[in-house]
Amino acid sequence: MRDLGILKSRQDIDVLLINPGSLKAVYQDLANVFSAIEPPSMAAIFATYLRNKGLTVDILDAPAFSLVANSVAEIVTHYYRPKLVVLAVYGFQPSASTQNMPAAGEISRAIKQMNSKIPILMTGTHPAALPARTMDEEAIDFVCDREGPQTILETVRVLKQGGSDFGNVPDLWWRHNGGVVSNPHGPLMEDLDKEMPGAAWDLLPMDRYRCHNWHAFDHIHNRMPYASIHTTLGCPFKCSFCCINAPFGKSSYRKWSPQHVAKEIDILVRDYGVKNIKFVDEMFVLHKEHVLGLCDLLIERNYDLNIWAYARIDTIKDEYLVKLRKAGIRWLALGIESGSKHVRDGVEKGKFGTNDIIQIVRKVQDHGMYVIGNYIFGLPDDDMQSMQQTLDLAIEANCEFANFYSAMAYPGSKLYNVATQRGWELPSSWIAYSQHSFEALPLRTEHLTSAQVLRFRDEAFTKYFAGKAYLDLVERKFGLDVQNHITAMASIQLKRNLYS
After folding, report:
1. Sign of the four-CA dihedral 263, 265, 269, 271
2. Are residues 339 and 470 in the same domain?
3. Tens-place pLDDT, residues 450-461
4. CA distances from 436 to 135, 441, 494 (A)
5. Is the residue at 201 inside a domain?
6. What is the CATH number of the domain that holds 381?
7. 441: domain range?
8. Is residue 196 in some structural domain?
9. What are phi and psi of 16, to 5 degrees?
10. Where would you tag: which of 123, 184, 244, 348 has the fewest CB atoms within 10 A of its CB?
C-alpha cells in the first residue's frame, strides 16, 4: 500500500502484513529529526514470497504514517477483508524487535476489539524467542517461532479452505481446545534467490523513508529517498548479547547471490531514485566471494551510491577496502563493543586488542570510507573502570559517528538466559528494552546497578558528541552545517525513569 489515499473501498485480501512501531516511544525527541524512518524489509520480502505462491498481499507500515493502534485497526477492519493479519515484529537491527512489541500488542488488541473474528499471527525475532509467552500475553491466534514465510503460507491455506486444524503447519503455535499447541519445526529455506526474490517495494510508501542522520553527513539535507535491504540472513558468530538467530533456531548464515542483490539495487535506483542504502545484514563483510562479487557488479554500474554495512574488526581484509569504496559503500559499522579485552572475551566478541581496533579504523578511513563505532556499556564483567576504558577508546578512535548502547538482555540472546539464571532484574515492559526510551532498563553487571550503567551511557554520549576532537573532525570532513546538526542532537536530553 503506497499511500493511505488509495483506501477508498473494501478489499478482499489473503494476507495483510503490518509493520508495528512507535518512533516517538522508542526514540523520544530524537524521532523528530535525527532517527531514521526505515522500510520494513522483512515484511516486504515475505510479501514477495507469498505473492509468488499465488496469494494476494498488502503491507501497512504504521510508523511510516505515524499511525496509532486504533487507526491501524480502523484501516484493517474498514478497508480490508483479510484472511490473515500478520504482525511482522522485526527491528532494523537484531536488538530492535522487542521494543516494538508494545505497539504490536496494542494493534492486535485494537483489531480484536473491532472485529474479533480476524485471525492474527505474530512473527519476528521477539515472538520466535518467546512464543509461549507471546501466545499467553497477546490478543492473537498464532505465533511463528521460526522464519515466517512458509508458516504464513500454510496457515492461510488452511483458513482459505475454511479449516480449523493447523496441526500440519510448520513452526506454528496455535490455540486448540482451550489450550496452546506448538507444531514441529520445518527446514529453513536454502535457495533465497528462488524462494524470496526481492522485496515488494511497490507495496511500500517509498517517499516516506529517511536514512539515519549520520548516513547523510555528506548531504545532510538529502536523507530521502532511502531503502534498507538484505544480502544475507543470520550470522555465524555467537556474541552473547545478540538475538539475531532466534528466528532460525541456530547459528545460520545464508546469502542471496551478488547478481540478485545487484538487480534489487537496479530497481531501487531506476524506479525510486534511491541512493542512500543500508545493508541490513548483521554481518555483510564476511565471505570474500559474496562481498567482492557484489562490489564488482556495483562498480560496473557506477551508481554513485551511499551504502552502509556492518563488519567486525576481524573480518575486514586489506583486499576488500578499495573495492568496497568503489562500489559505493561509504560507511562501515564496526562492532567494537568494549575497550576492555577481558570484557570482550566474556561476551565472545573476537580475539583482537585495542591496537588492532585503532589500526582497522584508520585503514577504513584511509580508503575514503567513514566508520561508525558501536560500543556497549554494562556487559556482565563491566565495572566503572572498564566502561571508562570503552569511552576512552571511543574518543581515541574518533570515528565519524558512534553508537553508545547499554547492554540489554534481549529475549533470544545468551544474556537473557544468564540474567534469568542469576535472578537479575529484567524489564517489566517490552518498551524498556529500547535504548532511548524513557522506561529503558539495561542489564545490571557483576559490579554495577542498571541505573549506574544507564547514567554512564548517557553522560558518555554527551561527552563524546560535545567533545572538541570529534566536533573538529566533523567540521573538517563534513562542514559547519553537520557540526551544527550534531550540536543540536547532543543538546537533546533523554528523559529516564531510572534516574531522573
Report:
1. positive
2. yes
3. 999 999 999 999
4. 27, 10, 7
5. no
6. 3.80.30.20
7. 206-490
8. no
9. -110, 110
10. 184
